[in-house]
Amino acid sequence: MTILSSFFNRASNAIHAYPSCSKLLVLCTISSGGLVAYSESQAENETPSEKKKKVLVLGTGWAGTSFLKDIDVSHYDVQVISPRNYFAFTPLLPSVTCGTVEARSIVEPVRNIIKKRDGEVQFCEAECVKIDCAGKRVYCQSNIENNLVGNKEFSLEYDYLVIAVGAQVNTFNTPGVLENCHFLKEIEDAQKIRGTVIDCFEKAVLPGLSEEERKTNLRFVIVGGGPTGVEFAAELHDYIQEDLVNLYPIAKDLVKITMIQSGDHILNTFDERISSFAENKFQRDGIEILTGRRVVNVSEKEVAMKIKSTGESCSIPHGIVLWSTGVGTRPVIKDFMEQIGQKNRRALATDEWLKVKGCDNVYALGDCASIDQRKIMEDIATIFEAADKDNSGTLTVKEFQDVLDDIIIRYPQVELYLKSMHMSDVTDLFKDPRGTDATGVDIEGFKSALSHVDSQMKSLPATAQVAAQQGAYLSRCFNRMELCEQNPEGPRRFRGSGRHQFRPFCYKHFGQFAPLGGEQAAAELPGDWVSMGHSTQWLWYSVYASKQVSWRTRVLVVSDWLRRSIFGRDSSRI
Fold first, then answer.
1. Distance between CA atoms of 546 and 538, rounded to whole angstroms?
2. Are 320 and 182 a contacting pair, CB within 8 Å?
3. What are the CA-CA distances from residue 231 to residues 116, 222, 362, 465 (Å)?
4. pLDDT in tens, 99-141
5. What's the CA gap between 223 and 290, in Å, rounded?
6. Residue 357 and residue 353: Cα distance in Å, rounded?
7. Can you say whether residue 297 is alpha, beta or left, with left for phi > 0 and alpha for psi between -120 and 50 degrees?
8. In this entry, which stretches build a coiled coil (predicted)?
């Protein structure tokens, strides 16, 4: 027994010293399975690994893909649902319509993106048709139309839901738009336009047509003078002048491009200098710009308009119409907004941390969402109370500076207001009318100083730049969620105690481009810098090449630009 007891002691010490040994099953006939029972009990005492939280991502656009590229999949069970199994570099869609860049050059398969992650990300090619916030479940439907076996509908549960489904074209309920217009939101749209442009030229050169019929077929109308419409007009003009008129010489003097804009100027979200430069260049190129007109109907042959200044009605014939007038809400988002009490909105309302208001663990990014920034005047009394440490009823500059960093982080409109008023420091708000520094202010003076700050609140534009930054921000929050629960990194809570778990989302504008054709472009850069001309076009080339999602697409896009400069654009209708 002494020998057997010594053996047990040594075995026990070995198993405790090396936990992995507890997985071994030792057989011994001497003790009637005593060692077997020991090893089993040790295995039973092992604590199972904590189950990963399930993150469900809807969409593979800019926001969704940016989130997927940075999320730490070792901490989460990530699933992706999208009706498209690729990511498209949408700023180059106008180039696809004219063959400057091929469609496959600006798309990257989603499975290529997710396979580069350390952990597994599951992808399903399907469309989300309903979101059940209360039951934490989404209902999906496959769009694959082939005669394949199996159920097309399924549902998935989630712990966290990231909605990044984008938006659809906004027709403003104008009659005939859905039936008779082209759009430019997806790769399929660009390919369809490319084929229709060639159709217009082929039909125009058929024998037996009158000159008016040829002109009608070659009348290209663009509704909307924003960046997409302007870039398409520029691409189409270059395509016609550099390639198609050489292939269809009879059409040289019959082609006309017309742009209809409801505002007074095209590119009205850009600097006035860029807007003026673009209008002058289009005028030199022979592109007709009709401003101050609202389209009221689009038929198979005509576009009917109303002149806003006079109320007169007029119409123009068309061969093709591109509708590019902004974005609207997708049906699944409309249904979801009704569920959570957000009816009659253009997009889902989120807080500054991108969490959907009225829902737990649901986030919304990109074009389908809009941040509802809290106004500083709603919290002005609590901010004053928190800053007034001595409860004197008067706030000194020193007391205000102690909470200044938290105010600027929590209410970014404060910093925007200071810039707009050309103030170097926030303490300039408390100077009297003669410019003298005030030693302190009471609550009424504090309200008066900050009363105009909320006027700088603006909705973020529905651009790829915004969506990509939101995706990267949210993935960082997810990656640091456990750490920030113990050590919050956000600003002070003025209503309540402690600090916010994360810093709120802050958009950084890196500028925007407007290619204008003829190897010229315009750019609006940070710091009120404006650049226009041929050199800006080369800057556009370098930026758009560097922003491609992979080296594969980067090489393909650059090779397409080189091919076009050497051989011209391909006019085959494939």
1. 12
2. yes
3. 34, 11, 36, 17
4. 999 999 999 999 999 887 666 899 999 999 999 999 999 999 9
5. 10
6. 10
7. beta
8. none
Using CA atoms, how far apart are residues 326 and 340, in angstroms rounded to an integer? 25
Q: Compute the residue count for the chain.
A: 574
The span from the CA of 198 to the CA of 95, in Å, is 15
DSSP readout, 474-499? HHHHHHTHHHHHHS--S-B-SSSSSB
pLDDT at position 147 is 75
Q: How many CB atoms lie within 10 A of CB 374?
A: 17
Q: Quick: pLDDT tens for 326-351.
A: 899 999 999 999 999 998 899 999 99
Model pTM score = 0.87
DSSP lists the bridge partners of residue 523 as: 513, 531
User: For the chain, how are helix, strand and coil distributed in percent, rounded to 5?
Assistant: 40, 20, 40
In sign, the C-alpha dihedral spanning 131, 133, 134, 138 is positive
Longest dimension (CA), the chain: 115
